[in-house]
Amino acid sequence: MNHPIKNKKIFFLSPSLRKGGAENQLTKIAIHLSKKNEVKIITFIEGNDFVDQLKENDIELKVFNIKSALTFIKLISYLKEQKPSLLICFMFSANIVGRIIKVTTKIPIITSVRANVMSKLYRFLYKFTYKWDDYSTFNSKYSFEAFIHNKLTVPSKSITINNGIEIDRNIEKVNYNFSRTVNLISIAHFRPSKDYKTLFKAIRILKDKGYSVNLKVLGNLDNQTWPGEMLRELDIDDEVEIVGFTQNTKQYLDQSDLLILSSFLEGTPNALLEAMSRKLPVIASNIPGNDFVIEESNAGLLFKLQDENDLASKVIDILSLSSEARETLGRNGLNFILENYELDSILSKWEQIIEKVVN
User: Fold this and answer.
1) How far, in Å, CA of 11 to CA of 1, rounded?
2) 20 to 30 A from 8, CA-CA: which of 32, 278, 312, 345?
């Protein structure tokens, strides 16, 4: 891949570097740009789930907890001293802060919207600041169109850039003949918006109906105790294993038969995309973001939001398919990712926008 952006100082601004879809994409872009440029990442919260990747690519992480005015002043001073060529901001809070930084320092900014729904406070702040962006990016067609409709972005300076997914073109999902025990997987941190409660209740329903399932959950518990308590209360602690946070999601995906995403809030669902890139059939809640991916790819099924009975029913629908039909779902998913989310193509689009702004 060509690197038209060279010898620039490019900084990223993000609320955190916990491993989520947005943070994962930010890190991929930062690593790519670091090959020919000086790249640094600034966050507002301590914690870094990408320590090894950043170290390997000589990317410095700086943390400024901007809850206090003094720390915000220190951030402004740091940026004035560093004089970056560009500030790329990820997620609503960083986008707002980045705009204030631009007004204060004149550093060009690119903002990136990573969610389809925003709070009333962010909507209010966006109304007064959206014109300050040098360019605005969106990782879903839904959010791009919604922001244009609501006059929260400048159409001539806005673009949809999908999430980039690393694809093994030689992957073979050789077994669509499910064994007696079906291996399910879900990938998301234990945040309220991920709605694991609905998923756990659906597992109980499947157990009551006589289905043998094993669910592995990949995500950070953040010291929460309710998941384990709920599993014991539903008597499904033998059926559900909370693996916790792991970098190696591919290993678990390749050992699974079906991915389930039960969220009631998503931007572009990275977990779905990763599963589809491994030729897995998928089931997801019927919300903006999920609906586009499932309907356009024909790689799985949607279930009614927060409806454990419908989720269990959709799992049974997948189990009832022939192995050939399940293989078709998996192949559809991979083809959709190849056409729309291939990483090198996505990185090229980012380079084109960055070049427009810095040059």
Assistant:
1) 21
2) 345
